[in-house]
Task: inverse folding
């Protein structure tokens, strides 16, 4: 099978198809439809799915175009010089998707909703920044995803729990370097994590979580996650777990 532009060099220089995001998007749709046959998903649940698919779609477009600037700062610089990038379009679409998803969730104070929008958009970018070595972005999703499954996420976001199952299924393919997430999958996971956090956390902790997500974006722009992980033994152990030597 010919993968075309979905085929890209990984960190070793081996050609790997960026198709795991497609599998996760299908998983999110199937899970939401199945849940909808037994319970009332409502506008919030369908809105969450629509937002996830928009984020997946704009990430897929970014995967298919030639490589350009990386990081929010570089995309903004490129736009300021008169050369807007698909990455900048992705940032705008993710932000717009976050507004729609939060607006359709159960009512909360306006200030909390604003921080919720920041949380969703920032998480999408954080998970994209993690996706530089096999398994890292998926592992980062498993912990909050498991917490959502244990504590329960309202039916306002059934696709989030479905993505936990999907992440477990596709993780071996990522670790074995037979396929990878790409921007479409990494942004999708991060956006889902943001939705889950917003749905599960009380109002004050939504603000805290949004602040942490913003700080992590700053770290990614200035220091890089890889450097922090390599210098922190517990994080380095988890990061290397299951990965090819």
Result:
């Amino acid at each position: 099978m010919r993968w075309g532009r979905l085929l890209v060099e990984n960190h070793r220089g081996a050609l790997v198809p960026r198709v795991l995001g497609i599998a996760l998007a299908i998983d999110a749709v199937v899970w939401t439809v199945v849940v909808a046959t037994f319970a009332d998903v409502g506008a919030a649940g369908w809105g969450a799915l629509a937002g996830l698919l928009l984020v997946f779609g704009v990430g897929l477009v970014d995967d298919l175009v030639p490589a350009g600037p990386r990081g929010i700062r570089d995309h903004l610089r490129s736009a300021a010089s008169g050369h807007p990038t698909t990455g900048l379009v992705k940032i705008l679409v993710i932000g717009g998707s976050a507004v729609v998803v939060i607006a359709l969730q159960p009512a909360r104070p306006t200030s909390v909703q604003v921080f919720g929008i920041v949380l969703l958009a920032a998480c999408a970018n954080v998970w994209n920044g993690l996706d530089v070595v096999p398994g890292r972005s998926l592992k980062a999703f498993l912990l909050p995803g498991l917490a959502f499954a244990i504590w329960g996420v309202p039916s306002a976001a059934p696709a989030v729990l479905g993505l936990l199952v999907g992440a477990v299924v596709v993780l071996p393919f990522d670790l074995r370097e037979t396929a990878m997430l790409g921007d479409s999958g990494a942004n999708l996971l991060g956006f889902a994590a943001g939705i889950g956090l917003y749905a599960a956390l009380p109002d004050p902790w939504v603000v805290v979580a949004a602040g942490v997500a913003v700080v992590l974006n700053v770290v990614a722009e200035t220091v890089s996650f890889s450097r922090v992980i390599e210098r922190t033994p517990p994080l380095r152990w988890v990061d290397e777990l299951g990965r090819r030597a």
Observations:
- The chain has a mean pLDDT of 85.
